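User: I'm preparing a small set of examples for a lab meeting where we compare how different chains pack in three dimensions. I only have the primary sequence for this one, and I'd like the structure in token form so I can line it up with the others. Please keep the answer compact; I'll paste it straight into my notes.
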Amino acid sequence: MADVLDTALTLYLIAVFAWVVLSWIPMSSGHPLGKVQYYLDRIIGPVIRPIRRVIPPIRLGGGALDLSPIILLIGIQIIRGLIR
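Assistant: Understood. Below is the structure token output for the 84-residue chain.
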């Protein structure tokens, strides 16, 4: 059971990385990667939103630094370490 959970968390970790990278690339929703980004948003959004409420993006001039994906990745790694 622990192996299945570890594999699922590893796949989610990869999905978070892909979600972050795709967020840097401007594309339309009709683009094939836009569809991937849409589904990743549906998978990662419900988990990342509560983190963003606690730790909102830090404003830096005209942009913002969103630390919530980093917090999520650290949390996933901690959970993976606990189940091993």
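A couple of notes for your slides: The helical segments are 2-23, 32-54, 68-83. The first strand starts at residue 58 and ends at 60.

User: Perfect, thanks.
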